[in-house]
Amino acid sequence: MGIVILAAGRSTRMSTDIGHKLLATFGGVPLVRRVALQAIESRAKHVYAVTGFRHEEIGDCLAGLEITVTFNPEFASGMASSLVAGLKTPGVMEHDGILILLADMPAITALDLDQLITAFETSNGRAVIRASHAGTPGNPVVLPGALYRQALLLQGDRGAKGLIESSDLDIIEVEIGEGATIDIDTKEDLQKHGDTSDGYNAV
User: Fold this and answer.
1) What does residue 59 show for φ and ψ, rounded to 5 degrees?
2) Distance from C-alpha of 78 to C-alpha of 60, rounded to nearest angstrom
3) Other residues' Cβ atoms within 10 Å of the Cβ of residue 41
């Protein structure tokens, strides 16, 4: 099992006066690094990250971590291009499953990720695993190797949701708590979940 962190987006729904959400601090740590640390602490064999918008600063936040970073030059075209870039990173498709982790999910923990990994192992690598909370599907998701080829054809900003729901594979929902449905898209999200002592520490 490998983990691919998608950290290439432009934060288009965030107010321009706030800055880049992945550079905002949560518990004193830039969001993208916070998420990466949880991934590294999980049982995954390797962690990869795909950067795009402001990639140098995102890369600086990931410096010193045991993580393989790939730059997606097509990041402006949408999330699909970053997922494809992640899958094309050397070594990624050698894993029997890939956990797709969005970099703007501050409540996700290593324990949450391990629950998803365990569910994938229990399915013998034959099912899609999707985090949920109170019956609501969320993120992260685990793509089994059987979907890699189709995932490489994805385009636009839809991610893998359509692929998952149109496949003939079982989808196993794993309750991990509210972390599955908390992401940072707006100023209000930052006010609720992030550090607010100095303008959200976002630049």
Assistant:
1) -60, -40
2) 23
3) 14
Q: Identify whether 106 is preceded by a cis peptide bond (ω within 30 of 0).
A: no
Read off φ and ψ for residue 68, nearest 5 degrees: -100, 120
Largest CA distance in the chain: 49
> What sections of the chain are H helices per DSSP?
31-41, 55-61, 79-88, 110-122, 148-151, 161-166, 187-193
Instruction: Find residue 137's DSSP bridge partners.
Output: 132
Q: Tokens for 15, please give them.
A: 């107010």
Residue 65 burial (C-beta neighbours within 10 Å; 0-12, 13-18, 19+): middle
Going by C-alpha positions, the residue among 32, 82, 4 that lies closest to residue 202 is: 32
Q: Name the token pair of 35.
A: 């998420």
Task: Decide the pairing of beta strands 171-175 and 25-26.
Answer: unpaired
Cα dihedral 182, 187, 191, 195 in deg (nearest 10): 90
* Residue 1, token pair as written in the block: 């099992």
Per-block mean pLDDT, blocks of 10 residues, the chain (203 long): 94 57 92 98 98 95 98 94 97 98 97 98 97 96 97 87 91 97 82 60 49
Per the CB < 8 A criterion, the answer to whether 187 and 4 are in contact is no
The beta-strand segments (E) located in the chain are 2-7, 25-26, 29-30, 46-51, 68-71, 97-102, 128-133, 136-144, 171-175
Gap between the Cα atoms of 144 and 51, Å rounded: 23
Residue found by looking up tokens 């059987």 in the block:
146
